[in-house]
């Protein structure tokens, strides 16, 4: 198999780690994994860089503002430039189905922006601006999809993914505050009987350990027909093309 370049269009920095298994495995086999993050506050960027470093992922921050994402011409040119510069074989991005029902800010606008930029990057759109030639539409995979049709066995890099997630301290504290407001204390104590509820950082870490493990076991060990213990779910855009039916 040829060495591959994967580009992740991440709406939020957390997604670098959510796709961290597939990205890290690509690097380990000699490929290149590059993440372009749409929205990330300044104080979180060093944490995302550190997490990406554990996974072997290159990362850049596109500097869009919260509540200000729009698929206008200027924004399309910025993403087209990334695609033509990185020249990926595969693009990973958020799931269109999930994005239109998700209440995170900017997800719907970002989805339109990603798909428009992917299409325009393969045409003669704005080629004079950076002197970069068009790049054909690569294979597209949607992360954390509502209806996955494939999984990646991340068992060999599970520990890397866990370590990377724990570097996102701002995300850990945010998750802790959200869940403490959503669930009764008794319910969280049932999930985490170790007495970590008083420390927001450690509570966030414990919550992510449990959630990430449950998700990857569900799509791996517990998945019908799965051959992995820990697996990340994806949905490929378009057909799988085979010469023969694979096992």
- Structural shape: globular
- What is the CATH superfamily label of the largest domain? LmbE-like
User: Structural class, please?
Assistant: alpha/beta
The oligomeric status of these chains comes to: single chain
Uncertain spans, ≥5 residues at pLDDT below 50? none
Characterize the largest beta sheet: strand count, sense, and whether it forms a barrel: 7 strands, mixed
* N-to-C series of helices and strands: EHHEHEHEHHHEEHHHHE
Notable traits:
247 residues, alpha/beta, Rossmann fold, 2 domains
A few lines on this structure:
The protein is α/β, with parallel strands linked by helices. It has helices at about 15-20, 20-30, 45-55, 75-85, 95-100, 105-120, 125-130, 160-165, 170-180, 185-190, 200-220, and strands at about 5-10, 30-40, 60, 90-95, 140-145, 150-155, 230-235.
Structure description:
The chain is an alpha/beta fold and 247 residues long. It has 2 domains: 147 residues, 3-Layer(aba) Sandwich (Rossmann fold), CATH 3.40.50; 72 residues, no CATH class. The chain is built from 11 helices and 7 strands. It has a 7-stranded mixed beta sheet, with helices on both faces. The model has no long low-confidence stretch (mean pLDDT 95).
Topology:
Elements: E1 5-12, H1 14-18, H2 20-28, E2 32-39, H3 45-55, E3 58-61, H4 73-86, E4 90-94, H5 96-99, H6 107-121, H7 127-130, E5 139-143, E6 150-153, H8 158-166, H9 169-182, H10 185-191, H11 200-219, E7 231-236
Helix pairs in contact: 3-8, 4-6, 9-11
């Amino acid at each position: 198999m040829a060495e591959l370049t994967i580009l992740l269009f991440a709406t939020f920095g957390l997604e670098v780690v959510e796709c961290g298994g597939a990205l890290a495995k690509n690097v380990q086999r000699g490929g290149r994994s590059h993440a372009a993050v749409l929205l990330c506050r300044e104080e979180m960027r060093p944490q995302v860089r550190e997490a990406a470093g554990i996974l072997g992922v290159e990362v850049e921050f596109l500097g869009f503002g919260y509540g200000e994402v729009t698929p206008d011409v200027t924004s399309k040119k910025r993403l087209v430039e990334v695609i033509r510069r990185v020249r990926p074989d595969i693009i990973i991005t958020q799931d269109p189905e999930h994005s239109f029902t998700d209440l995170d800010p900017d997800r719907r606008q970002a989805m339109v922006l990603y798909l428009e930029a992917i299409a325009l990057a393969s045409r003669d759109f704005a080629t004079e601006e950076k002197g970069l030639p068009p790049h054909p539409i690569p294979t597209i995979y949607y992360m954390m999809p509502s209806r996955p049709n494939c999984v990646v066995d991340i068992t060999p890099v599970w520990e890397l993914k866990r370590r990377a997630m724990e570097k996102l301290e701002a995300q850990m504290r945010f998750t802790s505050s959200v869940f403490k407001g959503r669930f009764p204390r008794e319910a969280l104590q049932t999930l985490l009987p170790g007495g970590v509820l008083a420390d927001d950082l450690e509570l966030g870490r414990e919550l992510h350990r449990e959630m990430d493990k449950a998700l990857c076991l569900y799509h791996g060990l517990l998945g019908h027909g799965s051959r992995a213990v820990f697996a990340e779910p994806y949905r490929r855009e378009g057909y799988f093309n085979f010469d023969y039916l694979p096992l």
